[in-house]
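Appendix B, record 7
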Amino acid sequence: MDIRQESLQKHYEWNGKIEVVSRVKVNSSKDLSLAYTPGVAEPCLEINKDYNKSFELTRRNNLVAVVTDGSAILGLGDIGPEAGMPVMEGKCALFKEFADVDAFPICVRTKDVDEFVNTVYLISGSFGGINLEDIAAPRCFEIEKKLKEKCDIPVFHDDQHGTAIIVAAGLLNALKVVNKNIEDVQVVINGAGSAGIAICKHLLNIGFKNVTMCDINGILCEDDDTLKDAHKEIAKATNRSKKTGNLADAMKNADVFIGVSAPNIVSEEMVKSMANDPIIFSMANPTPEIMPDKAKNAGAAVVGTGRSDFPNQINNVLAFPGIFRGALDCRAKEINEEMKVAASYAIANLISDDELNAEYILPEAFATCREASWRVLGMKHFPVQITGGIILHQGRIAEMKTGEGKTLVATLPAYLNALTGEGVHIVTVNDYLATRDSEWMGKVYKYLGLTVGLITQDMDNDTRKEMYGCDITYGTNNQLGFDYLRDNMVVYKEDKVQRGHAFAIVDEVDSILIDEARTPLIISGQGDKSTDLYTRADKFAKTLKKYVFTEVDAKEDKEDFYAENNIDYIVDEKAKTATLTQIGVKKAEEFFNLENLTDPDNLTIQHHINQAIKANGVMKNEVDYIVKDGEIIIVDEFTGRQMIGRRYNEGLHQAIEAKEGVEVQNESKTLATITFQNYFRLYKKLSGMTGTALTEEQEFQEIYKLDVVEVPTNKPLLRKDLPDLIFPTEQGKFHAIIEDIIKCHEKGQPVLVGTVSIEKSELLSKMLKKRGIKHNVLNAKHHEKEAEIVAQAGKLGAVTIATNMAGRGTDIMLGGNAEFMAKTQMKKMKFSEELIAEADAYSETDDKDILFARNTFKELLDEYKDEISEEAEKVREAGGLYIMGTERHESRRIDNQLRGRAGRQGDPGTSRFYLSTEDDLMRLFGGDRMKSIMSTLKVSDDTPIENKMLTNIIESSQEKVEARNFGIRKNVLQYDDVMNKQREIIYGQRDQVLNGENVHDDIIKMLKDTIEENVSLYVNDHILRESWNLSSLKETYKWLVPDKDFLVFTGDELDKLDKKDIIELITNKALDLYKENEEVLDAETMEEMERVYLLKSVDTHWMDHIDAMEQLKQSIYLASYGQKDPVVEYKLVGFDMFDEMIAAIREDTVKLCLLQPKRIARVKAQQEEMARIREEEEKKAAEAHQVLLDKQSKAPMPSPISLALKREQVAVPTQAGVSENGEKPKRKPIVKKNKVGRNDPCPCGSGKKYKKCCGRDE
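Structure tokens (predicted):
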């Protein structure tokens, strides 16, 4: 039943909420004499002697009169004193319940102030205090003032002071939550009645400096002569920022909204226009200005209402009983401002700072989530997992070993932080993990009443928005980052999908925030069509001879060596660069018929050649990329995963396409870009979890301000980490690995072989096939089977070859994974993918097929669990999982990650790395020293050695690489920080437009600033007037004033002018034109037009600016030759370029806003004239009984205004290869064929010579 209907029913039952109860018992004549006559005469005489004795001898010391005239009952208006009785009785009941104060309702039937005051004064001798209730403003202020003058007991207007005190108390605590202080925040109060004015005065008394007051007509301004006296007084004390306009204008960039006005007058858009973390107190009764859920969805950090059935109530019932209790106890004659301020602080302090923190409910929230997990999944968090959850909630990184259940750990902080209503993002490294975790852990969240979303690549905009609107959203780092960029390219606010960045838990945080941090997210649009230069440059590169250096010494001149050996270009393996030698340059000039390759006119050809030799000399197929379905797909160097959708920039991707003989795609234009470093720093709170982060703790701390906490394992770690084995040659190393695999396989011990490249994994696979060992291979080519292959790597006798980081997030269980085995069997039983997905779900359903699938899955799961338990024991006896690393990775963290695949949850296991002096890491860092040691010891190819010094060399090499990579990532961040600051300004301007703000004042300011800047270019007060370049200035503003005599002055006129006069002259011309436009088009159309043109200008210039900044970054390193820091120069030049872009945006926007309206009006007039002529022709034709045949001209023409107001996305991302039906066709590889000779038979099969047939036109 609705609360209001239920209350009505209760009032019928109660038949009044208060009653007078005697405090004495009258059981005898003596009792009667004591309580009444004759005994009562004595206390009467005592009071007659001393008036104050009435407080001791009667109940007056605890009796309050609750008085109303019925003129402002709740939010219902003037409904009369009798109709206000339920409120008066309710207030009396609250006095009694909350403070044990007896109260009595009194309704006075008069609207005359003096009559009301005299009536209350006449009865005031019976009470210890007077509470004025629900009396309309401004009469209430006059009544209160006069009663205070006449009465010697406290007079308290609860609507004013009770509400003001509790609002201030709530606000003091809310500001602690959002970490803001009272002197800085902007407060908007809507409702200039008694409560609103009292709140305003009280906040000013407490120390709030910036308060703006609104009534039904908008912001109260001091210069408004129509204001009543009470409002004039408030207007003088408020609105320091001199705002004008309506409530929406007042709320822009405000920190706090306090409503004591009318229902549903605040929209989500108005809340979104406020400052970060806004506070919303909407206290209109019975329906608030905005419902709490809507305010939260719009980004409000703290929401309060005046209703006791809503959370966070800001209700005066929490203030007035206590205040009156205190006043009566100390027999105060009034309740003054100091008492009210003290009351606000006292009430605020009833809630400790700890209680204002989400951590206050952490034990209850974690316990609830743990119990739900046990009931739903049969999994209960271990104590170490709870520790991990606390670390994540605190915004830190939890390092937890593989198999410690990090997926389950994330449920604890995710649930707690989701209770804020701001949303939680759980970020994974691939779509499989995002899907799996959202379905698996989603069962727990749904059981707890939360909504769960999943972001996948193929979702449409509406679905994405719905997913981001959920309490907890799963997605990959790529999906979240790209959605952020796309959100800042849309032209309508409703097209945005993300709702903010409150809290993120990043799974495999080292992979995402370290390994991928260097790679920027780039949204590209259609650029120039790729020329055949890529193909020609590739043909040229394939004719060249290369020489590979481990590391090039820039100070050493080796041109003679290159000439002797006919070397055309050199490759620096460590720096991953390719450079033409002098011989190569000469060959290029001959091949492309150039006089001088380094001539500035040949920069394009030079660029294509450089990319071609890098594609051929540095980039390796099945190491850096793979060719699949006619596409070049980048392989992540750390994880070995396919990075679908990502492309190398600067034409390198096209060069590789030419190298591999696939279709060369069009060049792209960068529309939007951001690095993961800056994207994840958008979150108010960021945390992460991984098995290996301590080696990168310095980087996490320096860039993300995240510290790393190592969490102990649930059970002792039993894995044996054996010393490295080092072989002289790679071939010897691989033979030793194969022999050890065979030994393990014979006793049933599962083996996971970690490789650093696809090439190495496939070489080992061939060697195992020759020896007849059954095995699985996991690399970028088998990307789709990743989880399935890794999950079964713990089966008895299993041999799995995988890249070092493959299968992260999937546990290897000894004996096998029963869930995967059950689902695999269901596939064999011909269950559909949809039914298999539903087989382990917990959602309620009556679908017979789903129920049958669940029963089948349960039976199979139980069967395989029994089977696995026996097999797992055999695997343990065999020694557990054996990890064999075929090469040290350049990062110690990746090696540790590989080791961590074994020994989960107290299982036995072994790990060992097999190295050779020919390994990339050993060769690049210290390989020569290693070889010399091997040579000295005369070690054979198949003989390994173990030596502490060698291990130290390896670790030293890894530390060098880690330090270098950290330096590179830090350098990238320094440059991107410059772009990030500029990005924030531009995206903020876009949001201003999308939020529907009135940008008219901004446009006028742009107009004035643009004119002042342009005039300053040509006019200067400090030079002779004759030297002013007025002709150029006139040419500049020819579009504004085409008049020939404009800016033409006589000598005398010119002498009397200064720069300000010229600025004023042009400004007035522009403003006059603006006014004419406003007369041509209505105000609403003009407002939208201003927004459209500003948005268009911003987007157009921002795209060009991104390209310009990228080019600047490529060339700024030259500044170091002039002993200047390139980063500092990049900042200085970059911001100069940004200022120029802003100036261009201003000028373009102003031009469009000034010129377009009249053009539109002219087109509209022409259309109307054509329509009129047409109508006349039809009329004449009808009179002549004829029919007009030209029906086409009658078709309605689009309105020029609607066309002008149509927002079009300037930056349109490309969707490569998407067909009309929305599907992405697979591209076939281009097969290179020998060119057909002119005299050869035509390949079409005609029997003619090629030159006489299909080659006729060549």
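Remarks on this record: The two ends are 86 Å apart (CA to CA). The first strand starts at residue 63 and ends at 68.
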